[in-house]
Specification:
This protein is 40% helix and 19% strand. By secondary structure, the chain is α/β, with parallel strands linked by helices. It has a domain at 7-261: TIM Barrel, CATH 3.20.20.105. The strands form 4 sheets. Strands 4-14-13-12-11-10-6-5 form an 8-stranded parallel sheet. The mean pLDDT is 96.
Amino acid sequence: MKNEAFKFEIQGKGGKARAGVFSTPHGDIPTPVFAPVGTQATVKSLTPAQIAETGASLVLSNTYHLYLRPGDELVAEMGGLHRFMNWQQPILTDSGGFQVFSLNEMRKIDEEGVTFKSHIDGSTHRFTPEKSIAIQENLGADIIMAFDECADPSNYDYNVQSMNRTHRWLERCVAAKKRPDQALFGIVQGGIFADLREQSADFVSSFDLPGYAIGGLSVGETKEEMNAMLDIVPERLPENKPRYLMGVGSPEDLVNGILRGVDIFDCVLPTRLARHGAAMSFTGRLNLVNKQYARDSRPIVEGCGCYACQNFTRSYIRHLLMVKEMLGGTLVSIHNIFTLEELTRQARKAILAGTYADFAEKFLADYPTN
């Protein structure tokens, strides 16, 4: 079912890079965009107001985890994710596929779906395409994902089987979806193999969906292998729909992805790094627990507009991290998410100005490769 609430307007292009706006029932998403991950209906250590202050316009939550706790039916009873977590801007939920397939020996795949054991208590559960859609409809996100299989990217024979299964499951997801106020994205798979990626992109594109995702990357392959797939896939997807690269969130990967026509990104990286004292910048990472910052009165990054950099020093934040005060991780998380939001804002501005190729070249030249 189509809904006029979901529109994608491209406002500018520079090579393959695009700047646009994706409209949803809970507001517009300017693209390119980075979505912080709120696995358990919360971006770790941050309030919704703090997330909004970074400039984030989209948050991702996790179907697998919310199904297990507190339960998707409870979330529906509480009014859906937007009301439950008090985030009134757009939300995206993944299908649960990546988490289920990451369980390895704790899951069994068949044509109908996946039987798996909870990582919490070992209880047995089963996801099918229909079940994944039903859970996501209970959660009530604006953007929902088709149930897919995320396979080892380097095993060709298994990727053939996995990709074809993912395609059959997409057909079932499309048939199962009932809510017109949610945008279902199909997912392109195929590992690091160009022929499979082309087949998958063409198959998924044959469905008139509000948007399309690229899955199965940033799961162990090299950066060169990932970029080689991104040289192929985005341009085979419909020009007038948003393209979402799943689970990718380092600054250089965002710049490279945008250069190749990707519009949406998400990743746990900014908050995960923050909890270990690692701060992001446009010129690499700073390990704030290093002794050299003990008497450093500068902000994390000079000139940064985030709350942490506007109000606190490296010395103070290092102190918080060293004594394991929660505020330390919170401040670095604010900074890291702001950094990625600012990067996509600057990328968007450069695309609209017709200078993105120069922007990307300079950024990548300044960014360390290791």
